[in-house]
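Quick one: structure tokens for this chain, please?
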Amino acid sequence: MSTIRLTMAQALVRYLAAQRVELGGEELPLFAGVWAIFGHGNVAGLGEALQQAGDSLPTWRAHNEQGMAHAAIAYAKAHFRRRMMAVTSSIGPGATNLVTAAALAHVNRLPLLLLPGDVFVSRAPDPVLQQLEAPQDGTLSVNDCLRPVSRYFDRIVHPAQLLTALPRALAVLTDPAQCGPATLALPQDVQTMAWDYPTDWFRPRRWRIAAPPPETDALERAARALAAARRPLIVAGGGVLYSAGGAAALRAFAERHGAPVAETQAGKSALPWDHPLQLGAIGVTGSPAANRLAEQADLVLALGTRLQDFSTGSGQLFRQARLLSVNVNALDGIKADAVALTGDAALCLEALSARLDGWRADAGWSAEARALAEDWRAETARVTGQRQPHGLPYDGEVIGAVQRHPGSERDDIVVCAAGTLPAELHKLWRAATPGGYHLEYGYSCMGYEIAGGLGVKMARPEREVIVMVGDGSYLMMNSELATSVMLDRKLIVVVLDNRGYGCINRLQQACGGAPFNNLLEDCRQGRHGAPRVDFAAHARALGAEAEHVSDIAGLEAALVRARAAERSYLIVIDTDPARTTEAGGCWWEVAVPEVSERAEVRAARQVYEDRLRRRQYE
């Protein structure tokens, strides 16, 4: 057997560089590179190996470990989980900065390879800089924080362990059912140890993203359930987009059988916004069209969705309907006592349609769906078409300006994650092409937006990427704006400044609470008060072009300048923290205190208890 002597880090890098995937008939590297912030825990071992690899496995430098992991996650999401990136940090704070991003990838079922440095296996120099000493367990390091938020975790304590650990990690990363973050903790002394690796282990390997077909008996049960339905509703989740051909299969199924379609945050863009059977968003942030039919449906076909509480109205929105769940993940498929069909979304839809020849939804149901969808499109146009609102504009009016400004394209990609904007975007953004709507709403992580936008732009350099972010999220994490300038990956960033956490301020008051500690004006302050943050000046300091606009007309003009710019461009507009789109939505369970001195809280508690009783007896 032929061997080659390499350090563990060199072998790891060489193996990753050899992995391939086929996309659109073209063979490409599975890994588009490694994000790295070096420290003493990874610079000598993995850093040396990455430098030697050069363009065979590009190294990308960021400014924050969580931010670069967000960029890697967004890259994978923009590629519908078919390509990915790795991330390496030093030990200590660099590693623990990855925990939030790992949880985000875990919740959203997105591939992310984490390679944090670790303490010495030999323990000879213990305690090293940044080492956590756990008196109850000598094997613990801070990297063990990543165990519960990893789909696969391993600590490489000998160079030979790569031979089994790396293939296992990649098997998880490329498995549509188990997909999520994989962590290989790399002790800094083991990174530098040499071993004789089999040369065949480094031969190029093509990974195939599996598309599991449905099992015959389960398929027959699912077909019988659909055949008995007269008022079906399809709820399209992210699994439709992650399925090769899923969007086309969804459209064909809906048209052939007259079944209207609603969409979750992750599934939005699977069917174009202007399709006659497209009802729009469903759930707490849903359209009146989708939610009305959800309450009347006799069967809900849940396609590739986790059935999160925002999609189901805390389990109440379509509880009267029989639930048929199509999902590659068996645990997702059995939620809410559903009839489960485990398999790839496209393959399941095609197989179901073949068994339902001649079956269609009632003509009246399909006609009502088309009418409601058309009414909602008209209402969306009215809401987003306001150019001269009384007072400050609100998010819906800003969204309208972003989508209609001269030069706006159907294949623009919007990126967002947290606050008020996801609700407004879910209802109002007109997603025309698959992947044109990039919302991280599984973990709804403030600070994802700009870093995520960078990852999307790296995945889709030919498309304009528009990041929409509130002032709160911007202040939490903005450093990758500088990275976008450094890497020449232009973003358009629209900052909506409502002077605080407007979304939670409204929720606080809806639960009877007094405005407290959310908007800056309601926070404890010192002698000089809360500063008026000049976001445009800050963005310019990070290397971007930037400006502040005073109204919707100014925003539209600024967007034209941003589109023509050669580097990242940030636009700030002041917005109303109170106004939202009134149409749509449904109940969402947020517990309210049983006892309070405030009459408003007691009244909100009564409403909450009434809803709980309705859930129990309906």
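The chain has a mean pLDDT of 96.
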